[in-house]
Specification:
alpha/beta, Alkaline Phosphatase, subunit A, 9-stranded mixed β-sheet, globular
């Protein structure tokens, strides 16, 4: 009996050893840079100094149509770690820390269960509740390294650099110290040609060069480890770059990223083209990364994952489209969805009453943003450059082949009606299929689900999200012939339907004046989100005293994001009465200290700066 047990244990240990050393399990190395579009020589940029990325591209496969699903880090990374769109998870708002459903398994955990040693160095930023991040990795720190794995154990390792991050242009480098010269850079046509804009772009090229050096060091470490021939290397940027109107915006400048995959000869069955140094035109996006890793590791892709594998045994046919989303960016609310084919980009704006260029504390730390704003204020901008400071159209369509900077909106051109309709339908189908949580105002996302993750709540049989989306689509495209139907929606039992009905009336502005009595009655709505939209509509229709009462009421709500919402409205309508100023001051006084960790604090600080109010005068501490 003892001999049988001994034989079993020996056999089991040999099986485990052979499994961990199996040539069928490649090592996988991710090299991730922050905040950069495909600005590299291998992508045709003649100014960029990127020899290491270029060499990697020559040794690997260069994806020319790769996109972040969100144009900002935290929701983009949420999508990566889950393989589920963040706006399906309920994690699309920037740094919102909501729970992820128990249905979702993080892909590094699945790799660990298969025998991989998984490391992350160091950035996580997954936009989820902190306690859910604790057991994702074997190591996650600035010391995490694949060298710490067991002997013969395959690894999945992530190295992340902030050398190209947006904050690198917040502190000005003297022009005589720049390696890339401001007079040599290309200015996008949507930006005015100013010294500050040229300087920021040139300085950014310098930081890209530093990031490229870091990429070279990571690759050299891999060579020195002796594992290069056993390791598939991915290099990508975590979303678009830091020019004005790039990061945070669903244009190519905000979502299109470099993606290079180097696959050693021993794994040539995974090659997406006949040979390295090839361009791959397949549209891919971050939601595809998790299923792709599972596919090349021989792990079945779970049903909950919404992405499509682009490598390995579970590779899918090339998709026609990839999808993007934009929701709250720090303290500023907006909502857009985007669809990208190989050639065209379609954008649908669900808050067309807001300008593109809402002031955002962190974004305005770049000198180029202030330069753009001031140049346009004094009449120094042309029509294209002025668009950023005006309300948005509901629909945008761009031919990226002929208009790479996306400045010529074709949505109103009858020659493109068929493409517009196809992409419009694709957008709606996608949103319904993934249960897009963006159609609940963020304050409602907190109040309605209770203790449930939003992902689970929206899949309950008594939540008709498709109906909510239908009403939202009606609202943003409404004409004065639709006032009656929108008014009828104001009495719906569903607060989200009432919210979108109020939004439609807000968009119609003077065309909704016949509904003013119903709007006044809606000031008693049980939802703060509805009351805030109604208050804005009434303000625009001249009922300013009633609107101010609505604003003040919303400022007193315990829901941080309902307060952030109304602070956005107060700023947008440019309300600066003593009554409202006092209400904002009282809200800030109750907070005691204004910090960057709370977005209602940031929005209040923007208003106090605008009104030239010194917080210290009112015993308000600002800890930025």
């Amino acid at each position: 009996m003892h001999k049988l047990v001994y034989f079993f244990l020996i056999t089991l240990s040999v099986f485990k050893l052979s499994f961990s050393q199996s040539p069928d399990l490649p090592n996988i190395l991710w090299i991730v840079s922050e905040d950069n579009s495909p600005i590299a020589g291998i992508y045709g940029d003649e100014i960029a100094t990127t020899p290491n990325i270029d060499r990697l591209g020559q040794e690997g496969f260069v994806y020319t149509n790769a996109h972040a699903n969100a144009p900002v880090c935290a929701p983009a990374r949420n999508t990566i770690i889950t393989g589920v769109y963040a706006n399906s998870n309920g994690n699309q708002h920037m740094r919102s820390f909501y729970e992820v459903s128990g249905v979702i398994e993080f892909f590094p955990v699945l790799l660990r269960e298969t025998g991989y040693y998984t490391t992350n160095n160091p950035k996580e930023d997954y936009n989820i509740a902190e306690h859910q991040t604790r057991d994702i990795w074997d190591e996650s720190s600035n010391q995490a390294h694949y060298n710490n794995r067991g002997e013969g154990q395959p690894f999945f390792a992530v190295f992340n650099s902030n050398l190209s991050h947006e904050h690198k242009i917040h502190t000005r480098i003297p022009v005589n110290e720049l390696r890339h010269k401001p007079d040599e850079v290309t200015i996008p046509p949507y930006l005015p040609d100013t010294p500050d804009i040229r300087h920021d772009i040139a300085q950014y090229y310098d930081h890209l060069e530093e990031m490229d050096t870091w990429v070279g060091e990571i690759l050299q470490d891999l060579e020195d480890s002796g594992e290069a021939e056993n390791t598939i290397v991915f290099y990508y940027g975590d979303h678009g770059g830091v020019y004005p109107r790039s990061k945070r915006f669903v244009y190519d400048t905000g979502t299109r990223v470099p993606l290079i995959v180097r696959i050693p000869e021993r794994f040539r069955d995974l090659w997406p083209a006949d040979h390295p140094d090839s361009k791959v035109e397949r549209p891919v996006s971050f939601v595809d990364l998790a299923p792709t890793l599972l596919s090349i590791s021989g792990i079945p892709i779970p049903d909950f994952m919404q992405g499509k594998s682009f490598l390995g045994d579970q590779k899918t046919p090339d998709p026609e489209y990839v999808f993007m989303f934009r929701d709250r960016m720090d303290e500023r609310y907006d909502m857009s969805r985007a669809v990208r084919s190989e050639r065209y980009r379609y954008i649908r704006n669900y808050m067309p009453y807001r300008i593109y260029g809402q002031r955002l504390d962190y974004l305005w730390r770049a000198p180029s943003m202030g330069s753009w704003e001031q140049t346009c204020k004094v009449g120094g901008c042309n029509e294209i450059q002025n668009k950023f400071w005006n309300p948005k159209p509901v629909e945008e369509l761009y031919d990226t082949q002929n208009d790479p900077w996306e400045v010529n909106n074709l949505a109103g051109d009858p020659d493109y009606n068929q493409i517009l309709e196809q992409m419009r339908k694709a957008n709606k189908k996608w949103m319904v299929n993934i249960h897009d949580s963006g159609f609940l105002p963020e304050a409602e996302m907190i109040d309605r689900p209770g203790d449930q993750p939003v992902y689970d709540y929206l899949r309950k049989s008594d939540v008709s999200l498709s109906r909510i989306i239908e009403v939202a689509e009606k609202a943003i495209m409404a004409t004065d012939q639709d006032v009656e139907i929108l008014v009828s929606y104001l009495s719906s039992e569903d607060s989200a339907i009432r919210y979108w009905a109020a939004t439609g009336l807000l968009i119609l502005d003077e065309h909704a004046r016949s509904a003013i009595d119903e709007l006044k009655a809606a000031l008693k709505d049980s939802s703060t989100s509805v009351r805030t939209v109604v208050s804005e509509s009434l303000y625009n229709l001249g009922e300013k005293n009633l609107a101010r009462s609505g604003f003040l009421d919303a400022l007193k709500t315990p829901n941080e994001f309902a307060r952030t919402h109304v602070l956005n409205v107060i700023d947008s309508v440019d309300e600066d009465s003593a009554q409202i100023q006092n209400g904002v001051i009282q809200m800030a006084q109750q907070a005691g200290t204004l910090t960057r960790q709370h977005y209602d604090h940031r929005a209040a600080k923007v208003l106090m700066d605008k009104w030239r109010i010194d917080p210290e005068k009112y015993d308000i501490v600002v800890d930025w």
